[in-house]
Amino acid sequence: MTQPPISDYAIVGDCHSAALVSREGAIDWLCWPRFDAGSWFARILDWERGGALRIRPVGDFETERRYLPGSNVLRTTFHAEGGCVELDDMMTVAAYEEAHATLRSDRELLRIARCTEGEVELAIDVTPRPDYARARPKLERRGALGVFCTHGADAMVLRVHPGTLGIDEDGGRVHGRWTLRAGETAQLGATFAREEPAIVPALGEAAQRRAAQTERWWRSWSSQCRYAGRYQDAVKRSMLALRLMQYAPTGGLVAAPTTSLPERVGGERNWDYRYCWLRDAALTVQSLLGLGYEDEASSFIHWMLHTTRLTWPEIHTLYDLHGHRDTPEAELPHLAGYRGSRPVRIGNGASDQLQLDSYGELVCAATAYWMGQEDDPSRETWRQLRKVGEWVCAHWCDRDEGIWEIRAERQPHTYSVVMCWAALDGLLRLADRFDLRCPRERFRETRARIREAVETHGWSEAEQSYQATFEEDRADASLLLLGRFGYADPHSARMRGTVARVRRDLERDGLVWRYPPSTDDGVAGHEAAFGVCSFWLVGALARQGELGEARRCFERLLEVANDVGLYAEEMRAEDGAPRGNFPQALTHLGLVDAALELERCERAVPRDGAEAVA
Amino acid sequence: MTSGIGWLMLGALLGSLLMTGLMSAGRFLGLSRMSLPFVLGTMFTPNRDRAVPLGLAMHIGSAMVVSLLYFAVFRLMGGAPWWMGGLLGLGHGVATYLLFLPSLPGLHPRMASERDGPEPTRVLEPPGPLGLNYGKRTPLIGILAHVVFGVVVAVFCGQGMK
User: Fold this and answer.
1) What is the ipTM of this complex?
2) For residues B36 and B30, what is the distance between their CA atoms, to the nearest angstrom?
3) Rounded to 10 degrees, what is the CA torsion of A230, A232, A235, A236?
4) Nearest residue of B to residue A151 by CA position?
5) Do A197 and B124 touch (CB under 8 A)?
6) Residue pair B110/B101 in contact by the 8 Å Cβ criterion
7) Which positions in chain A touch B46 (Cβ < 8 Å)?
8) Which residues contact A93 (CB under 8 A, 6 or more apart)?
9) Which DSSP helix (H) or strand (E) runs through A148?
10) Which of A394, A415, A477, B91 sits at 20 to 30 Å (Cα–Cα) from A571?
11) What is the pLDDT confidence band of residue B2, given thresholds at 50, 70 and 90?
C-alpha cells in the first residue's frame, strides 16, 4: 500500500501534544507527553516500522471527514459495505474546575465509533513503537484495566469498551474487533503516564462526558473569536489549529507538531519543527490580539520574554517549549522517512544561526501588545527591551543567515536590516507612549542610518525594487512585509515595484516561493511554494488597495487547504499539494493575518486611484 | 530524652527527604513509575497539582511517626548502630512493599482494581504485588530507599543517645 499524501492527515491535540489522523482512521504520528517528545506512533516517517493506532472497517470503504463545528474534534465517516460508521477522534481537554474535579490522565486520546447505518465490523490494530521506533515496549494484559505498554518510566494504557484487546504472540501488536449495528457505540481510550502510576479513565458514559467536555471547551474558546469577516470558517479553523499548537504550560507556539515531512518527496529538506521560532512572534501576537485572544497573546509575550531572558540581549532563532536553546540536530537512520525522504532529523541546527530579523519580530510583538494596554511594561521588561535596542544599534550591519535560515555564507539581508529598523521604531513608539527612559537620540540616529543603508544598498535601480540582500539583486518574498511593519508606505512607488517583482519572479497562480530556485541556500534540491509568503502577498496587495486581486489570491489559497482546512509549510506548484511539516503554524498565522488585513483595508476609505471596495 | 527526640525528628526528616529523593531519581532514570507522594496525595484529592505536595507532606509525616518505632527499638537495644538502622529500614521497606502496597486498592478511594477495571472515580493504576506494576525495579529501589532512611535515622538517633 502506498503511503498516503500529507493532505490525507488531520490533527487532534490538547495544547501539550498532537496526533495526526489519516483518512483511513490511522493515527500515524503521536508524540507523548509533549510535542517535542519521542514518538509512540511514527508510521508517517516509516510505513513499516514506525507504529500506528488504527481503527478501520474490515473490507472496502470510503471516507469523508470534518471537524465538529468550532472544535478540534475530528469526525471521520466510513462508508463501508455493510453500513456507515462515524469515528470521533480527540485528545480530551476540560476547563480547570472540571479537569480537577476527578483524577484525570495527563494525556488521553479518545476514539469513539458510532454506527449510524447497517452493520459494520471494525478492526483495531495498535503497534506502539516508543522513542521514534527505536524501542519495543513491553505489552501486558492487566485484566479489566486493559493493555499496558511500558517503556522505561513511560506507560501507554490501551482500553476498549465494549470488548477486550488481545496481544499478538510476538508481543509487538495489540488487536481487537468490534461489530457495530446501527445506534451502537464503541470506544477506545489511550492514556499516557510518565514517571507516575498510570491513570486509567473509565470508558462508557464517563468517556462520553469527557468527549462532551472536550467539545464544549473548544467551542467555548473558538466562540471568543472576534473576526466577523467573510472568511470566518478558514480563520476559525486556523485559530483552532494554532491554539492546539500553543503549549499550555508555557505559552510557546510550536512551528509544527511534526518532524521531517519533506519539502520535496525523496529529498533531504526534512527538518524538525517542533520548536518555537521567534521569527513568528509578531505575527502570532498580532493575530491573537486581532481576533480578541488577549490571554493567549499575553501568555505568548510572557513566554517570549521569559525564554529569551537567559541569553539577553542576544536572542536565538528558536527555543524549545520550555525556553531552552539546546536543540542539537541528529539524524535517525533507522527510519525510512516519509515516502523514502531521508534523513529523518530530530533537533534543529538553526538554533545556532544569527537572524537579525528576530530582534525586530520580538520588539514588534511587544509593541503590538503594549500599545493596546493601559499599563506600561514593567521596569524589568522595559530594561530588557531597551537592551535589545542597544544591541541592535551595535549589530544591525552584521551579516546573518536571514529569515530563511540560509545554510550558506552569511549576507547582509535587506529584510533583516529592515527589521532592525522596526525594532528601534517600535521601542521609540513605546517610549513615547509610556514616557519611558531610553537613549532616544541614539535610537533615532541609528534608525535613520538604517533607512539610508536600505534605501541605498537594498534598492535595485535596474529592477525598480528592493532586493534580497545588499549584495544580491534578486527577489525575496520577505520584502512583501516592508509595508507590514511600517517601514515603507505600501502605496509608494518602491513598494509597488517590489510587489510587482515578487509577483513576476516568485509567484505562480497565487502561490509564492521564498526566493528564486537558483538561489544557493546550502541544501540540495528545490523547494515548493511557501505557504506564508503566499498569504503575505495577499496582505501586500490589500495594503496597496488592490482588494479584488487580494481576494482572488486569498480564495485561490483557500482552495489548496486540505479537506479539513489545514496547511503545510509549503505547497506544490502543480496542484497546491502540501509539502513539509504539517500543519504549519506560520502558514495559518499568515492566513489569519491576511484575512485581518483584508478586512481592515476593506473598511478603510479607499485612497485615490485605489480600487473601491467591492 | 527531649534532645534524643529532637535528633530523631531531624533524622527522620532528612531520611525521608533522602528516601523520597532516591525514589524520584529512580523515576527520572526510567527505572520505576512509583511515586509515593502521588499515590498518597490522591487518596485525599483528585487535584493532581495538590496531590503531590500533600502526599509528600503525608509521606514525611508518616516517616516521622514510624521513626518513633525505630527509636523504641534503639532504646531497647541500648544503642543505634547504623547497621541496625539499615536492618530496620529493610524490614520497613519489605513490609511496605509486601503488605501495604498490595492492599492499597482496598484503602485508596481512587485506585482501580485489575478485577473490576476503572470506574468513574477509581482510575489510578494499582501497584500490584511488591509494586511491580510500576516497573520491575520498583521494589528494589523502594526497599533500598527505606534502608537508607533507616541508616540516616540511626545515625541521628545515635547522636541523641550520646
Assistant:
1) 0.84
2) 16
3) 180
4) B30
5) yes
6) no
7) 100-104
8) A14, A15, A99, A213, A214, A217, A218
9) strand A147-151
10) A415
11) low
State how far residue B7 is from chain A, nearest Cα, in angstroms: 33
User: 3-class DSSP state for residue A165?
Assistant: coil
Residue A329 in contact with residue A36, Cβ under 8 Å? no
Residue A470 has pLDDT above 90, yes or no: yes
Whether the per-residue pLDDT at A220 is higher than 90: the answer is: yes
- Distance between alpha carbon B69 and the CA centroid of its chain, in Å? 14
Here the cell at position A428 is 521609540
**Cβ–Cβ below 8 Å for B115 and A202:** no
Go through B109-135 and write b for each residue having 16 or more CB atoms within 10 A of its CB, e for each that does not. Answer: ebbbbbeebbeeebbbbbbbebbbbbb
Pairwise CA distance, residues A105 & A108, whole Å: 6
Look at residue A528 in the predicted model and tell me its pLDDT.
Answer: 86
pLDDT of residue A250: 87
Contacts of A199 in chain B (CB under 8 A): 123-125
Cα–Cα distance measured from residue A135 to residue A501, given in angstroms and rounded to the nearest whole number: 51
Contact status of B127 with chain A (Cβ, < 8 Å): yes
Q: How far is A114 from chain B (nearest CA, A)?
A: 21
* Chain B, nearest residue to A206 by Cα: B120
Contact A197 B127 (CB under 8 A): yes
Q: What are the tens digits of pLDDT across the range A543-581? A: 999 999 999 999 999 999 999 999 999 999 888 899 999
The answer to whether B135 contacts A150, with C-beta atoms less than 8 Å apart, is: yes
| Contact check, Cβ <8 Å, A197/B112 | no
Residue A101: the pLDDT is: 82
Answer yes or no: do A197 and B121 touch at CB < 8 A: no
With a cut of 50, say whether residue B52 has pLDDT above it.
yes
Of B119 and A92, the one with more pLDDT: A92
- The set of cell numbers assigned to A521 is 541556500
pLDDT tens readout for residues A54-76: 999 999 999 999 999 999 999 99
Q: Which chain B residues are closer than 8 Å to A101 by Cβ?
A: 46
Q: Amino acid identity, residue B155?
A: V
**Interface contact flag, B124 A196, Cβ < 8 Å:** no
> Looking up cell 527526640, which residue turns up?
B5
Query: What's the average model confidence in pLDDT over A406-425?
Result: 93
Answer whether B124 sits within 8 Å of A103, measured CB to CB.
Answer: yes
B80 reaches A (C-beta below 8 A): no
The mean pLDDT of B126-138, rounded to a whole number, is: 92
Task: Tell me the pTM.
Answer: 0.90
Share of chain A above pLDDT 90, in %: 78
B102 in A contact zone (CB under 8 Å) = no
- B2 contact A CB<8A: no
Q: What is the spatial distance between Cα B57 and Cα B43, in angstroms, rounded to a whole number?
A: 13
**Residues A288, A297: Cα–Cα separation, whole Å:** 6
CA-nearest of A319, A408, A325, A400 to A360 is A400
Q: From the CA of A160, how many Å to the nearest CA of chain B? A: 11
